[in-house]
């Protein structure tokens, strides 16, 4: 039967594509046309991506903590970590 | 839209701009007449902002080891459960049932109005009705897509509708006898649907909440176009006004019944409330709908067919006559005026589409020989 496709839409120039939902279609061309009819009836987008759901590899919520751990203890990656002496501008 | 400036009820006034990041922003225009009036669409907008705000927060759960504890903490923090999260089996099953029946209702809901596409009184009204019926199909598809994230596939969902294993809203088993019924469906049926659905924009399951935000924004067009049809008829010839009144007479009580049985007899409510799928009781929503409709009917100069309808100063709400719940259950059981016709039509449409699905699949197979061909 027809495959499941995930649909991503760029709302306007200057913005990135955002996931809006999914649909079924037998091939990419029909998926694009269906996406236009289902998700952009009110000019919600200027560009559409369709991706086979089966082709998406996703991280698992079960391993959430371990997977994202490396970022947790590196607060020095954020500018707010650093003390800026009073009176210093443009930093 | 000659009557636009006179449609003064706040419910019919969409929010001009939706928050940044929503791809429907700016599409719906700005026609506020009453700044500050709290409309249902503002509630949709608020739900969308709350969804984004909740996402910023941190869920605090005991180490995140306990699945149930983590799920409970997410719900308690008003955050969203997403498709691959662990969830209780009853939450998953309940949501599949609710979202699927909602989707089926949108699909079957195309029929009563589709009945009038070929007989709309002008080309413009025909084009508007076509757009509206197309929206209903779109709403069904958003909802099927949301249901599929819970691990059920589209074929199963379609099959459950066609085999009658799952129901759709009983309101669509009533016939559309006149053009005014298209107006009454927009005003009352879509109006009741919006009152029911706005709280679902805050539902705890992410894909459902997001689909509902899209749907509610589009429904407001439906409700307005219905109201405008009735307003035009009610201010036309005596015959047209009588036709409008007749349609309101027939659709009022079935619309009240759309909120489901009274709270004392509602079966799924308590758990749904705890899981933040449902947020208000059937009777609370029904009251809200009545209170909304009364002033709208006055502007239409049409009578709500309820002699007991009266403002209750103490409750600050209207007293009204309950719909006939025995009739509601009878229609749900399959004995409404159009149950068999609706199902027969849906099955025929599905069967008639077989060759299209087969041809598209054959084309896709032919063009994918020797690797994927985009």
Question: How would you characterize this protein structure?
Answer:
Helix content of chain A is 23%, strand content 24%. Chain A has helices spanning 28-39, 64-72; strands at residues 3-10, 18-25, 47-52. A three-stranded antiparallel beta sheet of chain A has the order 2-1-3, covered by helices on one side. The longest helix of chain A has 12 residues, at 28-39. Helix content of chain B is 59%, strand content 2%. Chain B has helices at residues 40-56, 67-76, 89-108, 110-114, 123-148, 154-162, 179-197, 206-234, 238-257, 269-274, 282-300, 325-335, 339-352, 354-368, and strands at 310-312, 317-319. In chain B, a hairpin with a 4-residue loop joins strand 1 and strand 2. Chain B is globular, with a radius of gyration of 22 Å. The A-B interface holds A 1-2, 4, 9, 11, 18, 20-28, 30, 37-38, 41-45, 58, 60-62, 64-65 and B 21, 23-25, 27-28, 64, 82, 84-86, 131, 134-135, 138, 141-142, 145-146, 148-149, 153-155, 207, 210-211, 218, 357, 360-361, 363-364, 367-368, 374.
Please estimate the helix content of chain B: 55-70%
Compute the average pLDDT of chain A: 90
Query: Percent of residues of chain A in helical segments?
Result: 10-25%
Strand content of chain A: 15-25%
What is the gyration radius of chain A calculated from CA atoms?
Answer: 21 Å
* Largest protein interface, residues of each chain: A-B, 29 and 36 residues
Q: What quaternary form is this? A: heterodimer
Give the helix tally of chain A: 2
Main-sheet strand order of chain B equals 1-2
Termini of chain B, distance in Å?
Answer: 44 Å
Outline the biggest β-sheet of chain B. 2 strands, antiparallel
Low-confidence regions of chain B: 1-37
Number of strands of chain A: 3
């Amino acid at each position: 039967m027809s495959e499941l496709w995930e649909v991503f839409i760029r709302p306007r120039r200057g913005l990135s594509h955002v996931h809006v939902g999914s649909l079924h279609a037998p091939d990419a061309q029909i998926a694009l046309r269906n996406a236009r009819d289902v998700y952009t009836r009110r000019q919600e987008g200027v560009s559409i991506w369709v991706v086979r759901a089966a082709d998406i590899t996703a991280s698992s919520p079960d391993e959430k903590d371990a997977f994202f751990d490396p970022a947790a203890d590196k607060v020095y990656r954020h500018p707010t970590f650093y003390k800026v002496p009073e009176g210093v501008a443009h930093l | 839209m000659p009557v636009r400036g006179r449609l003064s009820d706040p419910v019919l006034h969409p929010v001009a701009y939706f928050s940044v990041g929503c791809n429907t922003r700016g599409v719906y225009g700005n026609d506020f007449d009453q700044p500050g009036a709290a409309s249902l669409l503002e509630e949709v907008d608020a739900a969308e902002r709350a969804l984004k705000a909740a996402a910023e927060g941190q869920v605090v759960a005991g180490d995140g080891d306990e699945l149930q504890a983590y799920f409970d903490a997410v719900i308690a923090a008003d955050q969203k459960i997403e498709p691959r999260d662990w969830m209780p089996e009853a939450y998953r099953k309940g949501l599949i049932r609710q979202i699927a029946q909602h989707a089926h209702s949108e699909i079957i809901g195309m029929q009563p109005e589709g009945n009038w596409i070929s007989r709309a009184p002008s080309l413009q009204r025909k084009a508007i009705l076509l757009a509206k019926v197309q929206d209903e199909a779109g709403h069904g598809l958003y909802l099927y897509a949301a249901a599929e994230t819970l691990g059920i596939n589209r074929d199963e969902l379609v099959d459950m509708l066609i085999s009658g294993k799952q129901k759709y809203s009983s309101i669509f088993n009533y016939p559309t006898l006149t053009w005014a019924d298209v107006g009454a469906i927009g005003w009352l049926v879509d109006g009741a649907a919006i009152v029911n659905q706005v709280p679902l924009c805050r539902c705890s399951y992410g894909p459902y909440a997001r689909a509902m935000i899209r749907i509610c924004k589009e429904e407001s067009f439906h409700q307005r176009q219905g109201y405008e049809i009735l307003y035009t008829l009610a201010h036309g010839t005596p015959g047209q006004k009588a036709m409008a009144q007749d349609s309101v007479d027939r659709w009022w009580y079935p619309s009240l019944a759309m909120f489901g049985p009274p709270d004392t007899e509602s079966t799924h409510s308590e758990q749904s409330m705890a899981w933040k799928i449902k947020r208000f009781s059937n009777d609370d929503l029904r009251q809200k709908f009545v209170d909304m409709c009364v002033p709208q009917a006055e502007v239409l100069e049409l009578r709500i067919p309820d002699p007991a309808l009266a403002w209750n100063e103490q409750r600050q709400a209207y007293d009204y006559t309950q719909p006939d719940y025995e009739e509601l259950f009878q229609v749900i059981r399959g004995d409404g005026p159009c149950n068999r016709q609706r199902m027969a039509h849906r099955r025929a449409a599905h069967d008639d589409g077989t060759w299209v699905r087969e041809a598209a699949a054959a084309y896709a197979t032919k063009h994918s020989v020797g690797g994927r061909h985009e």
